[in-house]
Amino acid sequence: LTVMLTSVVIYLYTVIAFNFFRKFYAKEEDGEKEYKCNDMLTCFIFHLHSGLRAGGGIGDEIEPPDGDIHEALRIIFDMTFFFFVIIILLAIIQGLIIDAFGDLRDQLEQVREDLESKCFICGIGKEYFDATPHGFDRHVEREHNFANYMYFLMHIINKPDTEFTGQETYVWELYQQRCLDFFPIGNCFRKQYEEELQAK
């Protein structure tokens, strides 16, 4: 949306330049005049290409207005292009990019905190397992190792369905429905063992 707004603003400046300041867009190189604003399309492309890249705006890329009868208007044109396009609109675009990277960084930080504070597979918090020494580390390495679940999924994806076991068929059917009920969410061996002890 911001890029579209920038294009519209540059197009408006192109219209003004094409109608009033076209003579400043003719540069003489090696004795030949090179016209940068012959028609609206080339004028617009020139403003997009050179106007945005120039540190001081479009005024750096075209002939200076020194002594011209439209000198005051050209100065206003150059200054407003520099202010609105180079300073404001490009700053907005840069700000949006920085914000997007900031949001990504925050999301990655949140994921890292989640992985360190609870099991990715069952979602049970670290404090539950750390009642015993190294409980959480042992749980995520042995009981609910994320890599083992991924290997199992890759195994059933690549295995012919005619060779599935009953368990593999169950998981495959759920996986095709994009249903993750085969993950033991909120459950683990330790919890099951404690519940069995309490039942006795």
UniProtKB/TrEMBL annotation:
**Main localization of the protein described in the UniProt heading:** membrane
Give the GO terms filed under biological process for this record: release of sequestered calcium ion into cytosol by sarcoplasmic reticulum; striated muscle contraction
GO MF annotation terms: ryanodine-sensitive calcium-release channel activity
- InterPro entries this protein is in? Ion_trans_dom (IPR005821), Ryanodine_IP3_receptor (IPR015925)
Transmembrane regions listed in the UniProt entry = 6-25, 81-102
- Report the residue ranges that make up the Ion transport domain in this protein: 2-107
Provide one Gene Ontology cellular component. sarcolemma
For the keyword Transmembrane, the answer is: yes
A family per Pfam: Ion_trans
Membrane disposition: Multi-pass membrane protein
State what protein this is by name: Ion_trans domain-containing protein
Lineage of the species this protein comes from:
Eukaryota, Metazoa, Spiralia, Lophotrochozoa, Platyhelminthes
